[in-house]
Design a protein that fits this description.
Elements lengths: L1 E8 L6 H11 L3 E12 L4 E6 L2 H12 L6 E4 L5 H11 L6 E3 L17 H8 L5 E2 L3 H8 L6 H14 L3 E7 L6 E8 L2 E8 L5 E2 L1 H14 L4 H17 L9 E2 L7 H14 L15 E4 L9 E4 L3 E4 L2 E4 L3 E3 L4 H12 L5 E6 L2 H9 L4 E3 L7 H5 L4 H10 L8 E4 L8 E6 L2 H12 L1
Parallel strand pairs: 1-2, 1-4, 4-5, 5-6, 6-7, 10-11, 18-19
Antiparallel strand pairs: 2-3, 7-8, 8-9, 12-13, 12-17, 13-16, 14-15, 17-20, 19-20
Helix pairs in contact: 1-7, 2-3, 3-4, 5-6, 7-8, 10-13
The protein binds 3-hydroxy-5-(hydroxymethyl)-2-methylisonicotinaldehyde.
């Protein structure tokens, strides 16, 4: 998954482009960047800002869009009208969701947008956004409504939607009794509200973290209200973990997002880069899975909805990572995890007796089963062969094998399955086997 952030540079790396790249990474996505301005700031004060020329912003956007498939775009700081106009002309009509994070002031009070750019911001960028993510002050500025109640917040969201944003999330309403903070999402015509406890200290990077996390989760195909909720919880966690890196404000510290997805996604990318790996992709192609701990069903195991496909002498990743995305490899891991709960990841490779000999010589623990010996009863049951086979292969074992293979059956391709505790562990064993 590739995401693009069009935003300003923050040398303290809590917010701006640098913060976005860290958030994208935490969700296992690849971050590309177009820099609109350079700021000089730290956790105590704001020193200076200069925009990058509009023509250079334009050519940066072109350079990314002509080469990469982009799954979602986040727009953060845009300093002046010329930049706003080129971003609009480059992105207008594009079929990629745009997450617009209005940025007017830095945490330490510096101006991040020229006053005379605001009208153009409303005219050119808000209407091309799939969702806009203002906090209370920004929502008041854009809507012209003073927000003192949930009703005002909802009216402000409607007004901002009228300006042209398809959906609106206003963050940080603090008018409820007690210490609750409320966020309001206007999704098309429907309102959703979310609330959490107010955090006690100010931090640097929370706003950018939220919109970048939202961008990642919209790209991953999450339902909008779910994407908002995941991004909120991730941001709250990052704010709670905020660290005193400099001598002023604390800086958000990102936790790992969906660790399952991020580990698996990294491992799959590395797997595809292994020299000659295409030779190990079977006819039925490859899946690579990672399970939550103690899985109960295939829905607890993440895998590719498509496959890792052999394309000439390379591998291509087809489809997205989803819980329930794999049937065969996931069934094998599910069966393994019943007896050996530490085993949570697996990949299937093309069978070759030489590969098995090599794995044995390298000290890996091997088991196997005979598909021909499967009783007619389980054969009839759709999808049960793998579970039956794995069970058979581990029945008499006291420790988990690294590899289980079978040599096929009439019309059924022989196969090797590599198991491990994590995707990295599976990757390590795969490298041992094929080198
Ligand atoms: O958090 C908003 C933001 C965005 N972009 C840049 C910033 C800040 C806040 O300070 O500096 C470059």
């Amino acid at each position: 998954m590739n995401l693009l952030s069009i935003a300003g540079s923050d040398p303290s790396s809590g917010a701006g482009i640098q913060g976005d790249m860290k958030t994208f990474d935490a969700f296992g996505t690849y971050g590309l960047s177009v820099i609109t301005a350079i700021t000089s700031q730290n956790t105590r004060r704001f020193l200076d800002v200069k925009p990058v020329s509009a023509s250079l912003v334009k050519s940066q956007i072109k350079s990314i869009l002509e080469d990469f498939r982009i799954d979602a775009i986040k727009i953060g700081m845009v300093y002046d009208s010329q930049t706003i106009k080129v971003i609009h002309s480059e992105l207008e009509g594009i079929k990629i969701p745009i997450i617009l994070d209005p940025i007017f002031k830095s945490t330490t009070g510096g101006d991040l947008q020229l006053k005379d750019a605001f009208a153009n911001y409303k005219k050119f960028l808000i209407p091309i956004s799939y969702i806009i993510t203002p906090n209370m002050q920004e929502a008041e500025k854009i809507s012209g409504i003073k927000i003192k109640s949930l009703k005002d917040m909802k009216n402000a969201a409607k007004k901002i939607q009228k300006i042209g944003a398809k959906n609106v999330i206003i963050k940080g309403g603090h008018f409820l009794s007690g210490s609750k903070v409320v966020d309001t999402l206007l999704e098309d015509k429907k309102f959703h509200t979310f609330s959490h406890d107010r955090l006690k200290f100010e931090n640097h990077g929370g706003g950018c973290t939220f919109s970048a996390a939202l961008c990642a989760n919209i790209a991953r195909g999450k339902k909008l209200s779910d994407a908002v909720d995941i991004a909120r919880l991730f941001t709250i966690e990052s704010m709670k973990n905020a660290a005193k890196i400099g001598s002023g404000l604390v800086i958000v510290a990102h936790s790992k997002g969906d660790e399952i997805e991020s580990h698996l996604s990294h491992a799959i990318s590395k797997f595809c880069l292994i020299d000659n790996i295409y030779k190990y992709i079977p006819e039925c192609q490859t899946n690579f899975v990672y399970s939550t701990s103690n899985p109960l069903s295939l829905d607890d195991i993440m895998g590719l909805e498509g496959r890792i496909v052999r394309t000439g002498k390379r591998c291509t990743i087809a489809g997205d990572l989803k819980y329930g995305g794999s049937k065969h490899v996931a069934s094998a891991v599910l069966e393994m995890a019943k007896k050996f709960p530490s085993i949570r990841s697996g990949v299937n490779l093309r069978y070759d007796s030489m590969t098995i000999k090599h794995a044995i010589s390298k000290g890996l623990k091997i088991s196997s089963y005979d598909r021909n010996a499967e009783p007619a009863k389980t054969k009839e049951k759709e999808g049960s062969t793998v579970s039956w086979g794995i069970k058979k292969a581990i029945d008499s074992l006291n420790t988990p094998p690294d590899i289980i293979f079978h040599t096929g059956d009439f019309g059924k391709e022989a196969m090797i399955l590599v198991f491990g505790k994590t995707p990295e562990d599976v990757l390590r064993k795969t490298l041992i086997i094929i080198r």
